[in-house]
Design goal:
The protein is built from 11 helices and 12 strands. The protein is of the alpha+beta class. The protein folds into 2 domains: 4-198 and 376-380, 2-Layer Sandwich (Ribosomal Protein S5, domain 2); 201-372, Alpha-Beta Plaits (2-Layer Sandwich), CATH 3.30.70.890. α2 (93-105) crosses α3 (129-144).
Length: 382
């Protein structure tokens, strides 16, 4: 597990003096509410106990110098004086550049910095390592530049960085939870107005994340295609976003939509209802219902939204077959990446062992499995 001492030491080795600040921003797992954020709907993510860390020191000039511990100490730098460009040889550095670009676009004056970046959020597995990096960078600029940004503004700026500088049209969930998470809680976020509240996790069970190790290159084109389908559905139904239509009204009017558009929309409309039902179940401590709704979410993502894949379906089936598993579903954008499973505390060890064995027997792949605990959102740690 990474800690502030590790990154402090790395910074001192790299820049010849200790850092003056260290920031941390966590990755996330979404418990339910998938592909609802860009439909102005509800999501229920929690931050996980894996994070991106940045150690930093101010510079006298307006240069940002960065070193990535997780990419063999690769270096990249840019100036805050002129246009901020991409660095194709160091794509990791684009996330730092993107956030500087987005903050500057909002009129903030940014200081030059030396940065050492290191993390233990697995990369490209759907646990939001890039959102964690963006939020960590924003927290660092906020502290060194005395920008006075609150968590919601940080999340919005980081989403803009992702959408416009990186070019991925994601919703706001990942950046939001990394910036604003609450220890031992999930966050119910209403993506229509970005109001949110902490939801205590039910006692007696743990969220276990199982990585299929399936990586798919087409995620962003498929993701954008789903967004378009949703926009078309909303337009045809005469609402600003699919969030605005109730299940009853949707059921009455679904016939007026082309079949595939209706299916996509049905996922979003039913998923929003499931998020609220899960929150009620969590508040009553009803683990059985919580898990049943997770299962329904997966089935809807697979059948109506068509964002699952054979590996995710297999992982979910392996998980559901285990004693003590209340429910399992794909988490994040889909097409690969991870499943999230709700498992009785006393069954976690056996669950982890059996799911790994079963999945690897069928695929030849040994899946990484992470037993997750909900941590607080990003901040300066020293
Ligand atoms: C990705 C995006 C999020 C969200 C999920 C699907 O993680 O970054 O904004 O849309 O997919 O729920």
């Amino acid at each position: 597990m990474l800690n502030p001492q590790t990154i402090e030491h790395a910074f001192t080795q790299t820049f010849g003096a200790p850092p003056t600040r260290i920031a941390r921003a966590p990755g996330r797992v979404n418990l339910i509410g998938e592909h609802t954020d860009y439909n102005a709907g509800f999501v229920l993510p929690m931050a996980i106990d894996r994070a991106v860390w940045i150690a930093a020191r101010a510079r006298a000039d307006r240069t940002v110098q960065m070193v990535a511990r997780d990419f063999a100490d690769a270096r990249s730098e840019f100036s805050l004086e002129g246009e901020i460009a991409h660095d194709p040889a160091n794509a990791w550095s684009d996330y730092v550049r993107a956030v500087a670009w987005a903050l500057r676009a909002r009129g903030y004056d940014l200081p030059g910095l030396e940065l050492v970046i290191q993390g233990d959020v697995p990369l490209a597995s759907g646990l939001s390592s890039s959102a964690a990096l963006e939020v960590c960078v924003a927290v660092i600029f906020n502290a060194f530049g005395n920008l006075g940004l609150d968590g919601v503004t940080i999340a919005r700026a980081c989403q803009q960085a992702e959408n416009e500088f990186i070019g991925v049209k994601s919703g706001i969930m990942d950046q939001f939870i990394s910036a604003l998470a609450c220890q031992d809680h999930a966050l119910l976020i209403d993506c229509r107005d970005l109001t949110y509240r902490a939801v205590a996790l039910p006692r007696g069970a743990t969220f276990v994340v199982c990585d299929t190790l399936k990586r798919r290159g087409l995620v962003s084109s498929e993701y954008n295609a789903r967004r378009n389908d949703c926009e078309q559905a909303a337009q045809k139904l005469g609402v600003t976003a699919l969030r605005e239509i109730t299940l009853e009204e949707f059921t009455r009017r679904a016939n007026s939509l082309p079949a595939q558009i209706a299916q996509r929309a049905r996922h979003v409309v039913t998923e929003n209802a499931r998020v609220l039902a899960v929150v009620a179940a969590a508040e009553r401590g009803d683990l059985g219902l919580f898990g049943t709704l997770m299962n329904a979410s997966h089935d809807s993502l697979r059948d109506d939204y068509a964002v699952s894949c054979a590996e995710l379906d297999l992982m979910v089936a392996c998980a559901r077959a285990q004693a003590g598993c209340f429910g399992a579903r794909l988490t994040g954008a889909g097409f690969g990446g991870c499943a999230v499973c709700l498992v009785a505390d006393e069954s976690v060890d056996a669950f982890t062992e059996h799911v790994a064995r079963e999945y690897s027997a069928q695929t030849g792949i040994q899946p990484p499995i992470y037993v997750c605990h909900a941590t607080a959102g990003a901040g300066i740690v020293t």
